[in-house]
Amino acid sequence: MDMEIPVIDLEGLNGDAAERTQTMARLHQACKDWGFFWVDSHGVDAALMEEVKCFVYGHYDDQLEDKFYASGLAKDLLQAAVPDLEDSNKPVSDQVDWESAYFIRHHPNNNVADFPEILPPSREVLDTYIAQMVSLAERLAECMSLNLGLDCARIKDTFAPPFVGTKFAMYPACPRPDLVWGLRAHTDAGGIILLLQDDVVGGLEFFRGDREWVPVGPTKGSRIFVNIGDQVEVMSGGVYRSVLHRVAAGSEGRRLSVATFYNPGMDAVVAAPVTAVVQLYPGAYRFGDYLDYYQGTKFADKAARFQAVKELFG
User: Fold this and answer.
1) Buried (b) or exposed (e) across 104-117, using 16+ Cβ within 10 A?
2) CA-only gyration radius of the chain, Å
3) How many angstroms separate the CA atoms of 34 and 28, rounded?
4) Residue 3 has what DSSP assignment?
5) Which sign does the torsion angle of CA 225, 229, 231, 235 carry?
6) From CA 292, how far away is CA 294, in angstroms rounded?
7) Which residues pair with 163 in a beta bridge?
């Protein structure tokens, strides 16, 4: 199933006219029919990607693992793993996820100083990595804009100055994966999401159309996984769609996930095409207002969220 997910080799954008046209067409098809895809030849240094992975593993081992297993959720599931206990099949709250995660803002304001345990050498690695990821996001934004019949800078200009942040997550081996999700199903609020993930342990799943959940296997080589957020769906009038995704908890191994979000700035004004506003999508609204509403509806129905934002702000 994983092999069916589109793989876009961005080297084709540097080729002759025929190669560029073919690559743009493949990208458009992937955005339109899937909403998620892999990219090769993306311009992010492979050795740098490995350094980021090493940082995440080390930071989790040194700073987060003990805290995670001391949490109420971990204690409940460890207890539930004992088969002779009466409450071994007691349901776990559906309001929690089996993940250890933190979020670092990069632009326009960097908050890495809030993590004093992250030392200068690691900060330099992250800064270099994020600069390359932003370049990739801007390149994809340009291609998406052109494929939608917009001027090449439409998405980038709408987002400017963009909000860029990264969620660093670890999904440890779970003693009772039948009782909890690693991360519950949701769409992403923002624009373009770039994922550096585990190259051994899977668990990520995306919902394609009204068909089925598609497993996203471990990363192959130095590919980066891309998915579309709610704001690109709005700007495209539904030509491109953000897609439900979730992470299954696993009983073996631990899964690394580094998701970088290239989003509109908080004061950016996002709007659907006029012809789409009369349908599902809201008119002009401030992204910060959308994000505030999203915080309480992240795991709820997306269409209902669009309708509420339309009534409240758009």
Assistant:
1) bebbeebeeeeeee
2) 20
3) 10
4) G
5) positive
6) 5
7) 263
pLDDT higher than threshold 70 for residue 250: yes
In 3D space, the residue among 34, 8, 267 whose CA is nearest the CA of residue 143 turns out to be 8
Reference 197, options 175, 176, 215, 213; nearest CA is 215
- Residue 183's CB is within 10 A of a number of other CB atoms, namely 22
Q: Tell me the pTM.
A: 0.94
Three-state DSSP at 135 gives helix
Tell the residue number behind the tokens 């803002």, with chain if given. 105
Share of the chain above pLDDT 70, in %: 93
Residue type, 120: P
Task: Please state, in angstroms and rounded to a whole number, the distance separating the CA atoms of residues 2 and 81.
Answer: 31
**Assigned token pair, 213:** 């959940």
**Looking up tokens 């349901």, which residue turns up?**
91
For the chain, where are the E strands, in sequence order?
A: 7-9, 36-40, 100-107, 163-171, 181-186, 192-197, 204-208, 212-216, 224-228, 245-248, 255-263, 269-270, 285-286
Nearest Cα to Cα of residue 15 among 24, 7, 5:
24
Which contiguous run of DSSP H or E holds residue 66?
Answer: helix 65-69
Contact assessment for residue 44 and residue 187, using Cβ atoms and an 8 Å cutoff: no
* Residues 124-167: tens digit of each pLDDT: 999 999 999 999 999 999 999 999 999 999 999 999 999 999 99
- In the block, tokens 């909403």 appear at 35
| Percentages of the chain per state (helix, strand, coil), in multiples of 5 | 40, 20, 40
Burial 38-69 (b: 16+ CB within 10 A, else e): bbeebebeeebbebbbebbeebbeeebeeebe
Q: Tokens 């994809």 appear where?
A: 140
The secondary structure of residue 78, as a DSSP letter, is H
CB 249 within 8 A of CB 180: yes
